[in-house]
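seq:
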Amino acid sequence: MCGIVGAVAQRDITPILVEGLRRLEYRGYDSCGVALYVDGRLRRARTTQRVAELADEIVKEKLAGYTGIAHTRWATHGNPSLYNAHPHFSAQGNDEPRIGLVHNGIIENYEELRAELLAAGFVFESQTDTEVVAHLINHLYQGDLFEAVQQAARRLKGAYALAVFCRDEPHRVVGARHGSPLVVGLGKNENFLASDALALAGTTDQIIYLEDGDVVDLQLAKVWIVDAAGKQIERKVHTVHIHAGQAELGPYRHYMQKEIFEQPRAVGDTLQAVESIATTLFGAKAQEVLPKVHSLLILACGTSYYAGLTAKYWIESLAKIPVNVEIASEYRYRDSVPDPKTLVVTISQSGETADTLSALQHAQSLGMTHTLTICNVATSAMVRECELSYITLAGVEIGVASTKAFTTQLTALFLLALTLAKLRGRLSPQDEAQHLKNLRHLPVAISAVLALEPQIMGWADRFANKENALFLGRGMHYPIALEGALKLKEISYIHAEAYPAGELKHGPLALVTDEMPVVTIAPNDALLEKLKSNMQEVRARGGEMYVFADDDCSIHNEEDMHVIRMPEHYGMLSPILHTVALQLLAYHTAVARGTDVDKPRNLAKSVTVE
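struct:
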């Protein structure tokens, strides 16, 4: 992990490599580096600072070249340090380095390979599993880098995306992928590799998405791909229009703030093709597949898992179909009871989340072949793996803490609930019209919540000196409380937990003091009176309440009861509006505490390893 860029060209590709790394900074990283072929030698620059410092080091060292690779690393094996930073070189004895390599993923059999390579005389300079791959390719190299990488790939266990080049073949870069994304960018007498097409924005819009097991040979006027069986294969070339400006910050202080305020647009775009509730929203096969299913299994991780928990309330309420929501990283490692009439639904912003992809493949291996993904990337592995899909149009999300990806996921899942309800005769024309009206009004309703930012900033100043917080919700707002707590701890580093409000007296109430702010989601729904009783339990123990209440709720500001009134009660779509308010609270609390909002410590944006 976490970002790869590579290039072979007839011009200095150093600026392309550095700019590509800048565009991948959103994934999170703790070191970065560039390696180039320069005057018959492999040379590199590495740093444990940011890409800007790497660029300064490249200028200082006067590095330039027409073949090279670059990387941003998020530590898995070995601590964040200069000697563990990529690219890694491989030499034998006192020779000059012959192989340069960068790697995303985890090599599970690296210890076995390391022992073999030590016995063969290779010297290791890092603690990483990546250096093992560099030495293995060098060990297998017999004058053809493409062949050596194919041989090495057959011996690797785990997940990887590789970019490799060789001192003895200066106009060649070889890539390989298994379980970690890698794309090829095509140019005129130049070609590129990257872990994300965004890295190549402004350089090329002709993109090939490699499949698992592919090995690719990049030369100046040639791209040659073989599959896992070693057979030459043609992969489709996609024209991908990613405007470089999508990654620009503009007038906002942080990308997270920008992305919070992009949500009216993102939700509106996600709904732009919806004129009525119809199976065709989910793909050409949906009319055939959806009537056959009698239950759902939702697989997701992190924020996407909370979207799935919210969808469970919607689908079971509207369509009366049982829904099971599983954490993807747990599902594949337990004995479960498969049902071929279950629709397996995956939720992923990137569509490359390793745990979710593996869980999907596990479900398919058990005979559950009806699959649907809610995803923000139309060309991702998840979309290619699933029968059906709904593509959210959140756009590029740079901040590590997800915002607009989550609200667009919720929007798509609500459409799924309506579609399943209509298929089963549980959605009247009047109800369909009202739900569509509410959905179309959603961007305006979100904008009204964003207007609450000044009030929420006042709360954030109070939160900034706290170290713990509780979040409470009931019913379909309980998953939103979980999401609010996650956002606060992700970016402000305040320990936060969320509970169904009725569970307070079963343990968490012991934590409540005047130093433990309690954030409560209080929509004016059937559970409001129950929720008020739970709030009184907190006040009776000296707790301080921070309540997001609907405008028509009879909850008022008092000494220990801080209330922000939401612009309107929004029925079943209320979770989306409360999500936006909680995002603003987390964001401004983090700003007040001075943390790195867009790149929180220890976290990566795209989790492509288990």
